[in-house]
Structures are given as C-alpha cells and as structure tokens.
C-alpha cells in the first residue's frame, strides 16, 4: 500500500494527499475505519475518501480497505469479530450464556484434539528437567504464573521469566540453560515477537522446548520439541483463556500424578500455607498487630480461697 501511494502521489489532489498522509502514518487505524469514520478523522468528505480509493486504482473504498487489511489479519481479527458481534442485539443474560457456551466449546475441542504422545512427552520433560523456565508476555505471563504455581510443589526449580525488566531479563536467564533444562513457551494470537525470538534462541542453544499455543501454524510450533494446543476462539477478546487454563491444570495434574513423593509435597504445602488459611487453626500465626499486644493473664483465684490458704498475721490484711 505504501508503494502504491508513493507511485500515485504526484497525481493526487491536495485533499487526497491528506488522506494518504493519514493512511501512511496510521495504517492499522485506517484499516479499522469505515469510510465515514475515515473521512471524519481526516476532515474530508465521504465522497473525497471514496475518490481517494479510486485514485489508487481500486474499484472503491471497500476494495481499498480490504487491501489495507492484508498483513494485519491476525491483529485485526478480534476487532472485526467484535464489530460484528456488537451489531447483533443481545441482553446481558444472553452474553453470559454465549460466553459460557463458547468456553465450554473451546474446552471440548481442546480435549478432542489432545495427542496422547505429546502429553506423555510433555510430562516426562517436566519431571526430568533440572530447571524449568516459563516464558510468555502479555496475557501469557498470567497463564505462566499459574503454571509456575502448579508445578512448583513437584519440580525442584521453576522460574517465570516475565518480570518488570521485560524480555532482557528473560534473555539473561535463558543464556544459562542447557540440554538438561526445559523452556515452556506460551503464546497465543496475537503472538508476542519477544516470546518467539527468545524461544528460537533457546532452541538454537539446544534447550528442549515445550510450547503451549493454539495451532500448528503458530510461530512457536516449528520451534518446539513438543507442543500442546488449546482452542481459544472468542467473540469479545483476542483469545478465550478458559481452555488454556484447563489445559494447564490438566498438564499439572498429570505431573502431580507422575511425580515421586507428590503426596508428601502436597502435605508439606498444606502445612506451609496453614497459618494463612481462614479458620481457628491452633498453629495460626499472630498478625503484626497481635504480636505487639501483651499476653492476657490468667484470671485471679477466688479471694476467699486465697485468704484461707495464706495465713494472716494481722486483721488489717483482711479485705
């Protein structure tokens, strides 16, 4: 599109150049706008916007917009789905029901597409790794956090590489991994380039890679030694996380089942978190405020009992 605009620029009118400048500076935004929205944003008429498309040798604005969208399909897909969904009237209850049905459908499709050999290989790789690192940015960092939390009781060392330092921190940590370790990479549309880049570097260094992603055409798929796929279709978001969460819980359940000493690890975890659980537990820790309070004294004995037990030397000592 940039090349076409550059080729036709000498023939464009002043108002057409206004539209061209906006399209070149904001191609993604322009691709999402209807013709009336683009005209209002640039400050020209709808007719001018349509003539601009024709000046670029398109049949009209719809053809121009379709060509502009090329290259942004993955990025713009959630926008177009949302636009279509919002055009349909629905009650709040309808939205709740549709969302839950969508999540259930994604989980069912994920379950049906599970490959037993990949599941077995993934669990074996996790249990056999000296060190496990989890990489994923954006929403995937939250998914990675849940995965780390669930694997931690059964693996000696699990580290989430998403931090406030960003991908540079992940790059430093990954430089220390080797073939005895494992990288779990998480990415779904829209895929973060940093996740793909770091995964490629780890694979080139001989680090085994387990990918959690959505399909075989994912950029993570060819970089992984093994992959588990989750269906993530959503009408309102770029992805539905329900099936991914279910897949992560299924993976961690299989790890817990296959890990040595899993019962002991679960018991130790329960004992460790007991002081923070609600309820009258006898080992409950005192809060900082409670720690500063003086210990309550035992109630004093009955005065009459004391007077009978202790000999009095003077009537003045009587109460």
Give the SSE map:
Elements: H1 2-8, H2 14-25, H3 27-32, H4 35-42, H5 46-55, H6 61-69, H7 73-86, H8 92-113, H9 116-128, E1 132-135, H10 139-151, E2 158-160, H11 167-174, E3 182-186, H12 193-204, E4 209-213, E5 226-229, H13 242-258, H14 262-273, H15 288-291, H16 303-309
Report on this structure.
This protein is α/β, with parallel strands linked by helices and 319 residues long. 55% of the residues lie in helices and 7% in strands. It is built from 16 helices and 5 strands. Helix 10 links the parallel strand 1 and strand 2 (158-160). Helix 2 (14-25) crosses helix 5, helix 4 (35-42) crosses helix 5 and helix 10 (139-151) packs parallel to helix 13 (242-258). The N and C termini lie far apart (104 Å). Residues 303-319 have low confidence and may be disordered.
Helix/strand order: HHHHHHHHHEHEHEHEEHHHH
Shape designation: elongated
Radius of gyration: 32 Å
Structural class estimated from helices and strands: alpha/beta
The count of strands amounts to: 5
As laid out across the biggest beta sheet, the strand order is 2-1-3-4-5
Q: What is the end-to-end distance?
A: 104 Å
Query: Helix coverage percent of residues?
Result: 40-55%
Fraction in beta strands? 5-15%
Largest sheet: 5 strands, parallel
Per DSSP, the total helix count is: 16
Low-confidence stretches: 303-319
Roughly what is the average pLDDT, rounded to an integer? 84
Which features does this protein show?
5 strands, elongated, disordered C terminus, single chain, five-stranded parallel β-sheet
């Amino acid at each position: 599109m940039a090349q076409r605009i550059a080729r036709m620029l000498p023939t464009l009118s002043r108002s057409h150049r206004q539209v061209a400048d906006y399209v070149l500076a904001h191609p993604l935004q322009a691709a999402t706008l209807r013709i009336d929205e683009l005209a209002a944003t640039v400050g020209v008429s709808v007719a001018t916007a349509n003539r601009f498309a024709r000046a670029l040798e398109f049949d009209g604005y719809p053809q121009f917009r379709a060509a502009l969208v090329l290259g942004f399909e993955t990025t713009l897909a959630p926008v177009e789905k949302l636009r279509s969904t919002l055009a349909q009237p629905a009650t709040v209850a309808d939205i709740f029901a549709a969302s839950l049905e969508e999540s259930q459908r994604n989980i069912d499709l994920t379950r049906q597409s599970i490959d037993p050999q990949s599941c077995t290989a993934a669990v074996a790789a996790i249990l056999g790794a000296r060190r496990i690192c989890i990489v994923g940015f954006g929403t995937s960092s939250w998914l990675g956090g849940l995965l780390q939390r669930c694997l931690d009781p059964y693996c000696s060392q699990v580290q989430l590489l998403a931090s406030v330092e960003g991908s540079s921190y992940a790059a430093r940590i990954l430089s220390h991994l080797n073939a005895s370790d494992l990288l779990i990479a998480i990415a779904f549309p829209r895929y973060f380039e940093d996740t793909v880049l770091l995964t490629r570097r780890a694979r080139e260094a001989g680090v085994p890679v387990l990918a959690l992603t959505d399909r075989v055409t994912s950029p993570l798929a060819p970089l992984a030694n093994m992959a588990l796929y989750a269906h993530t279709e959503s009408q309102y978001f770029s992805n539905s996380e329900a099936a991914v969460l279910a897949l992560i819980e299924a993976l961690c359940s299989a790890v817990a089942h296959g890990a040595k000493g899993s019962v002991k690890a679960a018991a130790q975890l329960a004992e460790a978190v007991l002081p923070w659980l609600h309820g009258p537990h006898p080992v409950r820790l005192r809060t900082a405020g409670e720690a500063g309070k003086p210990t309550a004294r035992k109630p004093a004995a009955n005065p009459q009992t004391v007077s009978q037990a202790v000999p009095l030397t003077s009537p003045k000592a009587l109460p």
